[in-house]
Amino acid sequence: MPSHTPVLQKLIFSGEYTKAMNKDWHGQHFCCWQCDESLTGQRYVLRDEHPYCVSCYESVFANACEKCSKVIGIDSKDLSYKDKHWHEACFLCTTCGESLVDKQFGSKGDRIYCGNCYDQQFASRCDGCHEIFRAGTKKMEYKTRQWHEKCFCCCVCKVPIGTQSFIPREQEIYCAKCYEEKFATRCIKCNKVITSGGVTYKNEPWHRECFTCTNCQRSLAGERFTSRDDKPYCAECFGELFAKRCTACRKPITGIGGTKFISFEERHWHNDCFFCASCKTSLVGRGFITDQDDIICPDCAKTKLM
C-alpha cells in the first residue's frame, strides 16, 4: 500500500467538489486508499473507514469462489461456510448439482451436499430396515449395530423389544420368551424347559421329577436303576419284571450291585441260598449231588445211600 500524507484542510470557495463519508472533498483529494486514483464520480467501497475503488477492493479483500476459483466481486452475493466462499450460482450440491441457497445441506471433507444426497451417501442406516436415520429419530444401539425403535424387535415374534430384556444370538435378536422357546434345553419326557438341575440319561435331558421308573413311576434321580429296551427301571421293578428267580427263596436275582449267583441246569440260586437241602451247609465252591429237585452235599449223599 502506498504511503499517504495528510490532506491539508483548505477551504472550498468555489468549483467542483465531492461529498462523501459525510464530508466535503476537493475532487483531486477524494481518491482510492490503495491506488490513489480519484474516486470522484466513481463507485467505491468503504472498508475500515477508508474508501477503495472497486478494482482495488476486489483484488485486496474479495474472496475466491471455492467452485470456479474466480473472485466474488462486489456485485455478487458471497455465500460462506466454514471459511469457504461461493458465488450464489456456484453454491451447488456436489452430487446432483442442485442449488443449496436457502436450503439445508451437509458437508463431508471439502464437499457440500444437499440433504438427500448427503443422507444417501453418508447417513447411518438401520440394521433392520436399512433406511437412514432422519434428524431427531430415536436410535436403539447394541455394540456396533443400530436400529430404529420400531425395527429393534424380536426376530421370531416381531414384537419391539423396547425396554425389555433380550438375548443376541449370532446376528439375530430374540426376546427372552422366544429365545427360551427356540433354544432352551427341554425335557425329553414332558417337552418343557429345564430351568435348573435336571438329569441326563443316554445323552438326553430330563427333569429330575420326570426321570422315573417305567413301571412304578418312582423318581430315579440319585437312585440305583437299570434299563431294558432303553427304558429305565428301579431295581425292585426290574427284578420283579425281568430278573431270574432264586430256586430256593423265589426272590429275583437282579445282579445290581454285584450280586453273585449260581446256575445249574436252568435253575438259579443266590449265593446265600445255595446250600445242602439236608444239612444246610453252603455248597458255594463245593461239589454237590442232585437228589431229584434237591441238591445235597457229598456227605449227606453218602449217609442217605447207607
Description of the structure:
The chain is of the alpha+beta class and 306 residues long. The chain is 13% helix and 26% strand. The chain contains five helices and 22 strands. The chain has helices spanning 54-60, 115-122, 176-183, 235-242, 298-305, and strands at residues 17-20, 23-26, 44-47, 50-53, 78-81, 84-87, 105-108, 111-114, 139-142, 145-148, 166-169, 172-175, 199-201, 204-206, 225-228, 231-234, 244-245, 252-253, 261-264, 267-270, 289-291, 294-296. It has a two-stranded antiparallel ribbon with strand order 1-2. The chain has a two-stranded antiparallel ribbon with strand order 3-4. A two-stranded antiparallel sheet has the order 5-6. The longest helix has 8 residues, at 115-122. The radius of gyration is 53 Å and the shape is rod-shaped. Residues 1-15 have low confidence and may be disordered.
Key descriptive features of the protein:
two-stranded antiparallel ribbon; two-stranded antiparallel sheet; 26% strand; rod-shaped; disordered N terminus
Which percent bin holds the helix content?
A: 10-25%
Task: Please describe the biggest sheet, giving its number of strands, its sense, and whether it closes into a barrel.
Answer: 2 strands, antiparallel
Arrangement of strands in the largest sheet: 1-2
Number of beta strands: 22
Distance between the termini: 158 Å
Shape: rod-shaped
Instruction: Spell out the helices and strands N to C.
Output: EEEEHEEEEHEEEEHEEEEHEEEEEEH
Poorly predicted runs: 1-15
The helix-and-strand class reads: alpha+beta
**Mean pLDDT over the full residue set:** 80
- Strand residue percentage: 25-35%
Q: So how many helices?
A: 5
Write down the Rg. Answer: 53 Å
